[in-house]
Fold these 2 entries.
Entry 1:
Amino acid sequence: MTKHYNIAVLAGDGIGPEVMAEAVKVLTAVADKCGFSVNLNTALVGGAAIDASGEPLPAATLALCKTSDAILFGSVGGPKWTGLAPDQQPERGSLLPLRKTFDLFCNLRPGHIYPEFADLSPLHPRISSKGMNILCVRELTGGIYFGEKGRTSTDAFDTQRYSITEIERIARVAFEAAIKRNNKVTSIDKANVLQTSVLWRETVQRVAQHYPSVTLEHMYIDNAAMQLIRSPQQFDVLLCDNLFGDILSDEIAAIAGSLGLLPSASLNGSGFGLYEPAGGSAPDIAGKGIANPIAQILSAALMLRFSFGQEQAAQLIEQAVQQCLSQRIVTPDIEPNSSYNTVAVGDAVVAAIHNLSVNNMPVPTVGSH
Ligand SMILES: NC(=O)c1ccc[n+]([C@@H]2O[C@H](COP(=O)([O-])OP(=O)(O)OC[C@H]3O[C@@H](n4cnc5c(N)ncnc54)[C@H](O)[C@@H]3O)[C@@H](O)[C@H]2O)c1
Ligand SMILES: CC(C)[C@H](C(=O)O)[C@@H](O)C(=O)O
Ligand SMILES: [Mg+2]
């Protein structure tokens, strides 16, 4: 029987709708090729929803998400809405509540430098030629993002709080992933200053005892930011709290070649997920048709893998993207003189999917990505 998936498509603001259109094209092509069907239901979110209805996360949008098998999310926010009250702004009023509502505590952000296109990285070839294959495992529903906060006219505060339970569950994800990859977890903290980091380090250390085959290393965030540039190939799984993971994942994206390359999966304990590019609405290039659609397309691949178990379809998309990158079919964020725009890159990914043979796909290795 043909499998059928209901997907909530929330394109959002800025480049969101531009890159989402390409991901939808790719999803439709891969579904046809692999013999399943996707039912794509769009809804407004973020600034686009504020403009239409006065609210960043309308009840109808939330209801659609609740009745869907997964959420494909674009990006929200932009200068038009920064003057609104904090809780009414697109990011705090839609994306963070969605993460909290669905308990999407686990955020996976895989970043690569492959040998065939190591020159896309801004790092010196001496470093980039050694490649990079990092899975950033970011805690997504706790920490300073969701702690008590406040401000008066003269001061302001944000609170970082983590419980052992919150740290344990994300640490387990990191160790389980490492087992299927290269057996190394680097846990990022600031335990020389922060109490939450001391608890983080102790807890991760304890969880590690259940994974004797995995090497655990602890690294301070400032050193990690530096080591990523000096030798990114030393890392396998990076385990981060919410804020440190936000920052390091942008760095990983830049090392790979562009923020427009980094996808993400935000998952809860039962496999429900929201899939979105790690980058944002890019107001500086929105409307120009030059945004890189690859992060959005690869986020759709992660959805097929993690929410639907369609590993072959996910790999088909990933291989098609790799072909485009190695043929330098890329937007100007990667190669400034490139004549390929958003639509041309999306078309090239679709064409590569049509040409790839499903039978020649490698044996599925879930978790190794
Ligand atoms: N998931 C999300 O919805 C999300 C994520 C990050 C930022 N934001 C929001 O986006 C808005 C802009 O934030 P910002 O400028 O700090 O970050 P940003 O990620 O939007 O952009 C940073 C830089 O990266 C470039 N960039 C990002 N994605 C790209 C792509 N796909 N192709 C080509 N270039 C790309 C942009 O042009 C810009 O120069 C803010 O409102 C921010 O809160 C939203
Ligand atoms: C838009 C913002 C709230 C979000 C975050 O900080 O988590 C974004 O930067 C990300 O990386 O997903
Ligand atoms: Mg971010």
Entry 2:
Amino acid sequence: MSKQHNLEAKRIAGYAAAEQVQDGMVVGLGTGSTAQYAIQRVGERIQEERIAVTGIPTSYQSALRAREAGILVVDLPGVSSIDLTIDGADQIDARFNLIKGGGAAHTREKCVADASERILIVADATKVSECLTAPVPVEVVPYATVGVGRHIRALGGEPVIREAVRKDGPVITDNGNFVLDCAFGTINEPAALAARLNAIPGVLTCGLFTEYAEKITVLIGESEGCRTLTRR
Ligand SMILES: O=C(CO)[C@H](O)[C@H](O)COP(=O)(O)O
């Protein structure tokens, strides 16, 4: 898929998800290029249809984009529940386990997902895979980086500290932490791996989302339109 086709697929998925937002909803706003299209379209619908939407951002990126789009933004502690969250993913398996955190926002994304009644995952077709195989982002308290790396190697992973692109040194998350991208090859038991990663002292959250399949709908953008994926 060319970069242009890929962006168009993301736009189609993001826009389709935004159409599911209804007047009066509290909506979780995901992070990443696909979720940004949904934010943009929700903003347009607020202008065009005069619907009232409260947005709960998952990152500074989504908070800033939501403000630009004219969406009222409230932080997660300001609401008791979220009607619908629209977010992207780095990989989606056949059972709707996810790898997230390509934008280093997976801790807040998981908090928002947890508080949500329904989750729309928006992606292009390259994100869909029978099994999870992509590196797992792990948010780590900087003080604990070396020890966490040792635990991850003992679990069979190969951790790499994520480097910033336009700054020297590591990526710093919105929570002030580092991210280790951890290659495990094919992940046969994602829930068990998530539990072991999350139990390491100094790990804030790993990017394996394994407990939300029941409330997830996956929308895949394609040139002919948007396809809803069936969970197996
Ligand atoms: O998990 C995420 C951010 O932490 C993103 O949702 C994920 O990386 C997908 O991003 P994109 O829509 O740009 O491909």
